[in-house]
Amino acid sequence: MDPYKVLGLTLNQDGTVSRSSAMPFSSAFPNGESLPDSTATVSSKDVPLNPSHNTTVRLFLPNSLPPSKSLPLILYFHGGGFVLFHAASAPFHASCVHLAASVPAIVASVDYRLAPEHRLPAAFDDARDALRWAQSAVASDPWVRDFVDPTKFFLMGTSAGATICYHVALDLISSKLNLSPLRLSGLVLDQPYFGGIARTASELAFANDKILPLSANDLLWKLALPLGSDRDHEYCNVVAKEAKEVKFLPPCLVRGHNGDPLFDRQKVFVEMLKKVGVTVVAKMGSPGHHAVELFNSEKATEMATDVKNFVYGGAEIGTPGTRLENKL
Q1: Computed over its alpha carbons, how large is the radius of gyration of the chain?
Q2: Cα dihedral sign for 214, 155, 33, 304?
Q3: What's the maximum distance between 2 C-alpha atoms anywhere in the chain?
Q4: What distance in Å separates the CA atoms of residue 158 and residue 165, rounded to the nearest whole number?
Q5: What Gene3D superfamilies has UniProt attached to this entry (predicted)?
Q6: Residues 6+ apart with CB under 8 A from 264
Q7: pLDDT tens digits for 22-81?
Q8: What is the DSSP string of 211-247?
């Protein structure tokens, strides 16, 4: 199985890749778009992030607005193994539309730089830019200024996007960056994308997975990690050497499916968080493959419900180290 063919990539002589993914793009809809089988509408717009890096943020605003500034702000990072896709890629655009309407929340989807043209930590640097953008948007962007409760600020990512969330949250703790008036209330880590040299049982069991076969998984890390690094690098194998900042993380919602090759790594990650006393809401073990919510409307609704319960759960999400509704 040629991993380049699986991923729709062609390696160029200069080390860049040409991407031939069939995934279409969605335009922003400043005047609103309707959700399938729903009367709800969501407006979206693109705003610049860092012009020197050609990065942007796509904002999603539910049109059924509360009477006061009470919406959460979810800073979202799409998946794609750090190599593929954009905030405008149709499945990720649709997922953010669904989240904005269903939670409800203002969702800010970050279009970060991709590897191998921009290897890690470039995506993490773009996430830091996005944090500073969110802080300034509380005063400068009318959607955020008029409708967001700055004490309800969440980082969320799917697959590689969840890995970005995790690393930027650790950096936020170590740097002691003041995000006032924003207050980071939690992380939503949907099927986080972790790796390592030693194979896990789930990786071997799903070596020929239709979404993330083992050969493609290895290639994505080869293209994304700093040159000369292997899959035990701290960006990839986050449990090999536990970062000292982990215990200071805010509450985390971690989601994983039992048909995902990465499922075993996600379970170990949840146990690491628990061990150091992080408040964990673990939604682990439901049927499904990696990124299933992008292709299955029932799973998309399930994810949105989990996010809604976490974001609005407040003190009810549990005490430090708690695993709620866990199917490990």
Answers
A1: 18
A2: positive
A3: 56
A4: 9
A5: alpha/beta hydrolase
A6: 200, 201, 202, 203
A7: 789 999 999 999 888 778 899 999 999 999 999 999 999 999 887 677 999 999 999 999
A8: SS-HHHHHHHHHHHSPTT--TTSTTT-TTTS--TTGG
User: Choosing from 26, 89, 95, 159, which is the catalytic residue?
Assistant: 159
Catalytic pick from 260, 264, 289, 306? 260
Rounded-to-integer distance, Cα 123 and Cα 78, Å = 11
Q: Give residue-wise pLDDT tens across range 77-111.
A: 999 999 999 999 999 999 999 999 999 999 999 99
Residue type, 195: G
**Cis peptide leading into 104, omega within 30 of 0?**
yes
CB 169 within 8 A of CB 243: no
Q: Active site includes 290?
A: yes
The residue with tokens 């040409």 is 18
**Given the residues 109, 111, 290, 306, the one annotated as active site:** 290
CB of 17 closer than 8 Å to CB of 223: yes
- Could you give the angle at the alpha carbon of 214 between the alpha carbons of 222 and 168, nearest 5°? 50
- Give how far Cα 156 sits from Cα of 64, 208, 304, Å: 22, 28, 12
